[in-house]
C-alpha cells in the first residue's frame, strides 16, 4: 500500500500569488478524484484507488461430492477473473456455489482497477470418512489499521494443528485466537495433521489506514517561494466535491486521522498564508472506512 504524491494546479481566485497544496497519500485504501467543491480546481495528476478483496469459501472442508459456496467482495476494482480450480471473468462482488467436489482444490481470484490488482486464494478440502478436516474463519475481514481480529477454527480427525502465514506455532485442534494489532493486509493459514494426512484452511484480512497525510508545496503558482504558511484546513464529506465537515490545523501538522463511522469519505486539503488567503482544494482522496 505505497503512497504517492500529487501536485495541484490551483485556479482559485485569490489576490496575489496563489498557493499550491501538495497532498501526499500514504497507505490509503482508496485515493482518487478531482478538485473539491467551492472552487474550480484541476489536477496535473490524480492519486488512484488501491484495490481490496475479501474471498472466502464456506464450508472450507467438505465430503466427496458435496458443495461449497465461494463469496467475494472487492472495492476500487472494475474487473475480476477466476483461476485455479475455476476460471473466467467474474463480477467485482458476488457468490458462486461449486458443486460435486471430488478432490481438494485451490480457487484463486484476482481483481484489478486503476490503482493496481489484488489476488486471493482459498483452499477447499475434500475428505472421506475419518479424514482430516479443518475450518477457519475471522470475525471481520476488513479492519482499520491498529485493530485486531478473532480467528475461530475447528478440525476433525486431526491430531495436531500448526499456524503459518501471519501467525505461527502449534495450535489446539479447535479454538479461538485474537491477533495482535494489524497494520497491513494479513493472511492466516492453519494446517491440521493426522499421520500422513493433512488439511489446510486460510483467511485473508484487509487493513485500512484511516490517516491522510500531506506536505505543503515549496512555491506559489507564480514560482515565488511559499514561505508564509500559517495552517491547513482538512475538508471531508460523503459525496465527491461536497464537503460537509472541516478542521483547521497548525502549519506544522502533516496528517489527520479520519476517526469517523464506517463509510465512504472524500477528503481534500487547503493551505493558508499570513494574509489569511486560502488556496484552492488539493486533489481529492476517497477513503473507505470499515
Largest sheet: 5 strands, antiparallel
Class based on secondary structure composition and strand pairing: mainly beta
C-alpha termini separation: 17 Å
Domains, number: 2
Gyration radius, in Å: 24 Å
State the name of the first-level CATH class of the largest domain.
Mainly Beta
CATH superfamily of the largest domain: Immunoglobulins
Write out key terms for the chains shown:
five-stranded antiparallel β-sheet, disordered N terminus, Immunoglobulin-like, 2 domains, 290 residues, mainly beta
Detailed description of the structure:
The protein is 0% helix and 54% strand. The chain is an all-beta fold and 290 residues long. It has two domains: 4-49 and 209-289, Immunoglobulins (Immunoglobulin-like); 52-207, Immunoglobulin-like. Strands 3-1-2-20-23 form a five-stranded antiparallel beta sheet, with no helix packed on it. A five-stranded mixed beta sheet has the order 5-11-10-7-8, with no helix packed on it. A five-stranded mixed beta sheet has the order 13-19-18-15-16, with no helix packed on it. It starts with a strand and ends with a strand.
Task: Please sum up the structure shown.
It contains no helices and 25 strands. The chain is mainly β and 290 residues long.
